[in-house]
Amino acid sequence: MTTIAPQRVVRLHYVLKNANGEALDDSRARGTPLEYLHGHGNIVAGLERALDGQAVGAELSVTLMPAEAYGVRREELVQEVSRGAFPVDDLAPGMRFQTQGDAGPQVVTVVEVGPERVTIDTNHPLAGERLSYQLEVLSVREASRAELAKGHPLDEDVDHTQVEDRKQP
Fold first, then answer.
1. What is the C-alpha separation between 154 and 38, in angstroms, rounded?
2. pTM
3. Across the strands, what pairs with 119?
4. Would you list the domain boundaries of the chain?
5. Which ranges of 38-144 would DSSP assign to H, the alpha helix?
6. CATH topology for 75-121?
7. Neighbours of 13 (CB within 10 A)
8. CB–CB of 91/118 below 8 Å?
9. Does 163 score more than 50 pLDDT?
10. Where are the alpha helices (DSSP H) in the chain?
11. How far apart are the C-alpha atoms of 169 and 149, rounded to whole Å?
12. Number of H helices, E strands in the chain
């Protein structure tokens, strides 16, 4: 029986709940299982550790503290920026935008909107949260060479023998 280990593609269903027991995400309700490449940082570290060694059909409950999930909340990541930094004029608290940060893409949440300045929060929206997962492992398979080169699973209609991206002329 194949178990979850590095270099394997895992498909699973999950329900993600916050500390109050409210469902934040449910892959089964969406009809789309999560598929990820184990050992490549495609999911939060605590969840990957909990899944290591599990087999197809395994059902488990995992509770992660913030440091094992999306990190602790850092107040220094809340800051003011110019209102002109946003692509839309109609801004409201709670709106989210994806921007390029120092470490790559990041989500920015609008906290407060003033006439000239906007307070934003660049913490992950789930930072500081204790999260619980209900998991069901659906399948585990060896990753293709192309998937290992890319660092994530490829869609079924992708030719897995092609490792390099095709560049536009």
1. 13
2. 0.80
3. 80, 112
4. 8-70+127-150, 75-121
5. 45-51
6. Thrombin, subunit H (2.40.10)
7. 19
8. yes
9. no
10. 27-30, 45-51, 145-150
11. 23
12. 3, 9
Please give the structure tokens belonging to residue 115: 């006439």
One-letter amino acid of 141? R
As beta bridge partners, residue 10 has 36, 140
Q: Which residues pair with 25 in a beta bridge?
A: 16
Rounded Cα distance, 142 and 148, in Å: 10
80 neighbors 87 (Cβ within 8 angstroms): no
Nearest of 77, 7, 91, 90 to residue 42 by alpha carbon? 7
| CA 4 to each of CA 44, 47, 167: distance values in angstroms, whole numbers, following the listed order | 15, 12, 34
* Residue 142 identity (one-letter amino acid): E
Lookup result for tokens 């929206």: 125
Q: How many residues are given for the chain? A: 169
Write the pLDDT tens digit of every residue in 78-136.
Answer: 999 999 888 888 999 999 998 887 778 888 999 999 999 999 999 999 999 999 999 99
- Domain 8-70+127-150 sits in CATH at 3.10.50.40
φ/ψ (deg, to 5) at 164: -90, 145
CA–CA separation, 82 vs 94, rounded Å? 17
Asked whether the beta carbons of 91 and 113 are under 8 A apart, the reply is: yes
